[in-house]
Amino acid sequence: MQPKARKPAQVEQTLPVRGQVEPVQRQTVLSCAALTKRYGELLAVDGITFLLQAGTVTGFLGPNGAGKTTTLRLLLGLAEPTAGEALVFGRRYRELKQPLRQVGAVLESSDFHPSRSGRDHLRTLALAAGLPPSRVEEVLQLVELTDAARRRVRTYSLGMRQRLGLAAALLGDPKLLILDEPANGLDPAGVHWLRTFLRQLALEGRTVLVSSHLLAEVAQTVDHVLIISHGRLLAGGRLDDLTGADRTLEDVYLELTAGGAS
Amino acid sequence: MSGQLRAELLKQRSTQTTLFLFLAMFGLVALASALHVLAPSPSNLASRSHQLEVFEVGTRVGMLFAALVGAIAITAEIRYGTIRPTFLVTPRRGPVIAAKLAISGLAGLVFGLLAEALMAAMTTAALALRGIPNQLDSGDYLQLLAGGTAAAALWATIGLGIGALVRNQVGTLVGLCAWILLIENLLLFVPGVARYAPGAAGLALAGTPDELPAAAGALMLILCAAAVSAGGWLATLRRDVA
Known about the structure:
The complex is a heterodimer.
Chain A: E1 28-39, E2 42-53, E3 57-61, H1 68-75, E4 83-88, H2 99-102, E5 103-106, H3 118-129, H4 133-142, H5 158-170, E6 176-180, H6 188-203, E7 207-212, H7 215-221, E8 224-229, E9 232-238, H8 239-242, H9 249-260
Parallel strand pairs in A: 3-7, 3-8, 5-6, 6-7
Antiparallel strand pairs in A: 1-2, 1-4, 8-9
Helix pairs in contact in A: 3-4, 4-5
Chain B: H1 2-13, H2 17-38, H3 48-80, H4 83-89, H5 94-130, H6 138-166, H7 169-186, H8 198-205, H9 214-238
Helix pairs in contact in B: 1-5, 2-3, 2-5, 3-5, 3-6, 3-7, 5-6, 5-9, 6-7, 6-8, 6-9, 8-9
């Protein structure tokens, strides 16, 4: 365990010089170092190491049970790693002073009390986070739920629940978003809305880590990918570097994950 | 911290659960008090101690529903998964449990006070209706109201602690009902033990005859509430959230 929070890698403050292409060194927003989680006999996450730089949109891919959700829970302080460490903005999540202002997360599509209204759900979180009530109205508008905000979540469609989850994640206007299977169960219109929405978030310079197994969808939205299987990181890097003219993301994914399957 | 308290208060207010529990408690106390005063023969209601015994059911129901409110404050979050966003906002978790203890205790206070007030009013009215002389003095009423309210508030924190330890909502609620309504009565068969159980200690606090002295009952109940809350607190800090 780190006694003191680590300083994130320093950003080179270089002014862009016209006509000269410098490799931009970006701030590390999220990092896992030899991250390991064991549940009894099962090694759910097996020494995963990677880092995300500011402004990237990364797809976190892998078969069901590969350890994606466990990794995200370790990153978010919901579970304690058996070994290794997971840091956001150079600190353990639990050590963040105002986590909602730095990290927004959607872990499940249904983390709501069915008889609480969408607005009250957001208000409980805003109160606990010390955010103004006006912020609740802003995020409701952002995900187009203002008209349904008074209704109990029980009456929401799956797409509306996903959007309410996103609204909660955006309450603190965070620089980093962590989304677990946000497209699961959405209809085509919902998927389209989500894709546009994620692109907008990326354009605003936010860092996004999105787990999914909808490869075609991911390929349209992300610029980096991480592929894991059986708790191990199999590949990671820029989407363009991993795929090519004759190699789609699906080819790469199937090739990598087939070895570990059986 | 005040944000945490307001968040927990809003959680209590923004679902129908608290209201349903309250209505159920109100109905049960009304029914039980009516049966206990209207059914027995007048000779079985003549003495002060007989009349105090009628109050027992109000205290018991008040404690039970307070415990259920406390238990639901944590188990509903686990059941519906809102515990995840809750801990994402407050990842150190301690302030969440502290606020839940405070707000559950407050809800228990209100439940206990209203249960005992209804009990006292119903009993007094029913005795008058049957023409049985009321042997209770203002001290008896005061102890019922104050003691029963305190007992319910403490039981709310016991419910919260048990909920945090057990986590399964149905298991917790069934367990609490079974303990207060059944198991403590079975303990009467074990000589010398029953009076020290937390339910009996709550009755003592509210002035039920043949229980511990009120101060001893208060001590037993406070110790039990502190131990269970501490257990629930530690478990919540340490355990992974699924």
